[in-house]
Amino acid sequence: MPHHNKKIDMFSQLTNPIIIIIIISFLPFKDAVKTSVLSKRWRHLWYGTTTIDLDQAFFVDPNEDSSIRSVQRNSFIEFSKRLIQYYSRPTIAKFHLAFSLLSLKKCWDLESVEIRSQRLMTLVIDKCSSLENGVVIDVPNLRVFKYCGPVVYFVTEYLNGIVEADLDFGIEVEFNEHGDVLHQLLVGVWCVRILSVCSYMLQALFDNLVGGLGLVVHDALHP
Amino acid sequence: MASAPENEKNASAPEKKTLTLKSMINNEEFVVDEHVALQSVTIKNMVDSDCAGDVIPVPTISGEILALVIEYCKNHANPSASEDDLKKADAGIVAKDIYTLIDLVLAANFLDIKGLLEVTSQKIADSIKDLPHQDVREIFGVENDYTPEEEAAVRAEHDWAFEGFP
User: Fold this and answer.
1) Phi/psi class of residue A149: alpha, beta or left (left: φ > 0; alpha: ψ in -120 to 50)?
2) Which residues cross the membrane (chain A) (predicted)?
3) Neighbour-count burial of A116, counting CB atoms closer than 10 A to its CB (0-12 exposed, 13-18 middle, 19+ buried)
4) In this complex, do B129 and A23 lie within 8 Å of one another by their Cβ atoms?
5) Do residues A196 and A108 share a domain?
6) What pLDDT is stored for residue B166 in this prediction?
7) Do A162 and A75 sit in the same domain of this protein?
8) Is residue B164 classed exposed, middle or buried when 0-12, 13-18 and 19+ CB atoms within 10 A define those classes?
9) Which chain A residue has the Cα nearest residue B121?
10) Do residue A64 and residue A153 come from a single domain?
């Protein structure tokens, strides 16, 4: 009695694809996306998955040269944007995001940011003016860090790979004894090769220099 | 309540209510304690709305599959079963070939038994995840209605996901 034979017109008879979507949700994200090629009916069903894994490593081949990687990175971003745009499930069961560039621009409702990542290489925090509780950066492979905004408390850990830092506190109107905070930040990025600072920073640095730190600052520092 | 469920008990026994489920595929009948059968939301709705006769006909589900469903419901109706026991028992129930699993997931959906639906779906997903899509089509009985050009276009749209697959 090979019930295999009746296999499954049942599946195709189901007008409600809910079972298929449940099964797809148990698949790793990449395999879920692959089901789009099964048939026209299946083409967009994977958008119903509740397991999402946006991983730049799926798209970007680290062995390619930078122009190709940049194209690959763009397709990752385009894919992620499209997914978010069309995603319609009310809840996501699992969400995992992995990328090498994070840019936070004008995120006004963030009170604090804590970024811990092995892969992140570029971090931009631009005019996020409500970060009163500070910024934690624990990103060992970070190469580029750009900050523009008010002085906030930074905790930096293991930024040993940093190459370029751009610190702009020009938004501050008056000098408020932030010397220690900024000094702390500079210590955190001590191995940077190109450091760009604003005049506000120089003022704070000057205080610390007077304190005898012996820090030499150019706007482009090449050892 | 703690007494072991005895499914072969005659429906006329006064102390424990039972239901008879009948597979309409091969007419096999199963006598089940009511509280076991009520884990199926579909059956519960029938009983609650007085639509259930002495024998509840179950269309499209074979006796073989219905036996698995009942085994699952019994395990999960046992108040003394630990999480671990249930996990092991579930793993045993879904240790079947893919076609049995597909019948089982359809049954779980029809009878509306959430836990069984999930554990079976997980197992199906595990068994298809590394297969080329041609095999997945075969398993699900999906007819490929793309033209070769359309299929290539859909593939190209998500070429990153198909790396390493022919």
Assistant:
1) left
2) 14-33
3) exposed
4) no
5) yes
6) 66
7) no
8) exposed
9) A23
10) no
A with B: how many residue pairs have Cβ under 8 Å apart? Answer: 99
Minimal CA separation from B21 to chain A, in Å: 20
Write out pLDDT tens, residues A36-67.
999 999 999 999 898 888 888 888 888 889 89
Counting the structural domains of chain A, the total is 2
Do residues B66 and B21 touch, judged by C-beta distance below 8 A?
yes
List chain B residues with pLDDT less than 50: 1-2, 9, 11-13
Cross-chain CB nearest to A37 (options B102, B133, B160): B133
pLDDT at A220: 42
ipTM given for this complex: 0.82
pLDDT at A6: 46
Tell me which of A1-15, A44-58, A184-198, B81-95 is least confident: A1-15
A177 shares a domain with A131: yes
What's the pLDDT score for residue B13? 45
The whole-angstrom separation of Cα A35 and Cα B125 is 11
Contact A123, A137 (CB under 8 A): yes
Whether A12 and B125 lie within 8 Å, measured CB to CB: no
Domain match, A138 and A197 both: yes
CB of B141 within 8 Å of a chain A CB? The answer is yes
- The architecture (CATH level 2) of B16-129 comes to 2-Layer Sandwich (3.30)
Q: Which residues in chain B are closer than 8 Å to A8, comparing Cβ atoms?
A: 99, 102, 140-141
Q: Does B112 touch chain A (CB under 8 A)?
A: no
**Parent domain of A65:** 1-99
pLDDT at B2: 47
Which one of B105, B124, B158 has the shortest CB-CB distance to A36? B158
Least CB–CB distance from B106: residue in A10, A30, A38: A10
Say what the pTM is.
0.67
pLDDT higher than threshold 90 for residue A80: no
Whole-number pLDDT of residue B1: 47
Q: How far apart are CA A190 and CA A194, in angstroms?
A: 11
For A11, nearest residue in chain B (alpha carbons): B140
Residue count (chain A): 223
Q: Single out the residue in A66, A99, A132 at which a domain terminates.
A: A99
Residues A134 and A161 in one domain: yes
Using a CB-CB distance cutoff of 8 angstroms, which residues of chain B are in contact with residue A4?
99
Ordered by start, the domain boundaries in chain B are 16-129, 131-166
Q: Which residue has the higher pLDDT, A208 or A152?
A: A152
Nearest CA in chain A to B132: A34
